[in-house]
Amino acid sequence: MEEIKPVKTLNWVDLIAAVLGIGVLFVLLVLATKWAAARWPHEQLLLYLNGFLTQLAFLFLIWVIKTFRKWNWADFGWRPVKFRQVWPSIIGLYIFAWSINFMYGLFLLSRGFTPPETDVYSQLFGQATLLTFLLNFLLASILAPLTEETLFRGVIFGSLHTYLGKWTAAAISSALFSLLHFQAYGFLPRFMLGLILAHMYEKNRSLYPSMALHALNNFVATALLAGLSM
């Protein structure tokens, strides 16, 4: 199997700066949301603002890299792929990822754990109205797969792959991907999802299959949570 050889990668200084930039933006947005929540009682609206501003911050980082490092979209991993050939892999790996989620959920339930009512994702995706479902679809099934795959797989995994090899790069990028969701009990399944998405990118030399798998995963999760809250 041919390994990924991106046209361009970030050097170590730029890569560390990009990772720190993601972390700083996350922390600033979380602190700003908490500050606003103490002064404005519309918690759900603040959570949506935080979610959309996070994706805009990711788009800003992508724009910075594209502009100042003179990357084109192919350098990020936006390369053509024949979807008729990759759809079976997307569906198969999606089923595998959800099998892990299911078994992990059963394990937590067997230990008496249930997600807290204050969990951000339950508050956002568990609101069963047409408006919130459309907002969740836009945020989780469109924006997040585009921006997060471009940054975590295209930039971070793609660059680390050059220096550290496939699996070390996949583990580091997946850990960062999971950590920055700020949900301790969901770290393991998101880490495993990150490994699967990195594998999809490495296998197909394109972000489109991993974006499709990411979008499918988020859409089903959003639909299920909305259905359970009805």
Describe the structure.
It contains nine helices and no strands. The protein has helices spanning 12-37, 43-68, 73-76, 83-110, 120-125, 130-164, 166-179, 187-204, 208-228. The chain has one domain (12-228). α6 runs antiparallel to α7. The longest helix is centred in the middle third of the chain and has 35 residues, at 130-164. The relative contact order is 0.15. Helix content is 77%, strand content 0%. With 230 residues, the protein is mainly alpha-helical.
Give the mean pLDDT.
Answer: 87
The ordered H/E elements are HHHHHHHHH
Low-confidence stretches: none
Shape: globular
Overall radius of gyration: 18 Å
Main sheet makeup? none
In total, the number of domains comes to 1
Number of helices: 9
- Straight-line distance between termini: 47 Å
Number of strands: 0
User: Beta-sheet strand percentage?
Assistant: under 5%
- Which structural class should the secondary elements be placed in? mainly alpha
Helix content: over 70%
